[in-house]
């Protein structure tokens, strides 16, 4: 188990600081009496799985997670290099683990490694802000408000268009899966099961983007999944479920089945503006 070493004047946070980020492991939800998660076409979930990020597992994944959080929160700045030997000693991991972790962070645009300069934190303008891991880290850091607003704006751009394009283009099995997700959400809401609701909602939105028939939009589906999965994400009808939330999801499914792109787009806009906070972030289009 990786632990933080003794406090030192290295610029790295201590263990207590690192533990303040609440990334809890989710337990499987009970699904008795509702459509099951198991047995679905594996391809139907491939988009949503992209939101898992690329930080890996084990010690390597833990180190990427902790260093990434510290960089995004500003605990590690560009004022001094990140010394691999120092990181290895502080977190009690091997040089190989440190090296591979820094490579992952470099691929995300968080750090850069140059001869005679060392590894340093890069400015925010260089970060891959569409990376699901960075979305997650920003959601728990001092940039949480900016992350909230930016994700809301991005979803307003992506999802109504995806709903319009998806109308009439979905396979029957995908249409059925979308209906199943609405049923699961309804059951979960009645049981007060926020985890199951969130999982079904994430799959719903990922599948909808997948069947839009636009590969560039499909590539962005991981952003929507990440937005729905992180705490402190955009305030929409998906974040605070109620009966109106289910109604709008159901209307989207009906519009898709009927091939009515305009109705699907409008239902999605209604879903994303269930709460007045969103309307102040991204005003609804004016009526002409």
TrEMBL record:
Q: Domain HTH gntR-type, which positions?
A: 57-124
One GO molecular function term of this record is: DNA-binding transcription factor activity
Q: Which UniProt keywords apply?
A: DNA-binding, Transcription, Transcription regulation
Asked whether the keyword Ribosomal protein is assigned, the reply is no
Q: Which superkingdom heads the taxonomic lineage of this protein's source?
A: Bacteria
The answer on whether this UniProt entry bears the keyword Nucleotide-binding reads: no
What is the protein's name according to its record?
Answer: Sporulation transcription factor, WhiH
Q: Which organism is it from?
A: Streptomyces glaucescens
Please spell out the taxonomic lineage of the organism that makes this protein: Bacteria, Bacillati, Actinomycetota, Actinomycetes, Kitasatosporales
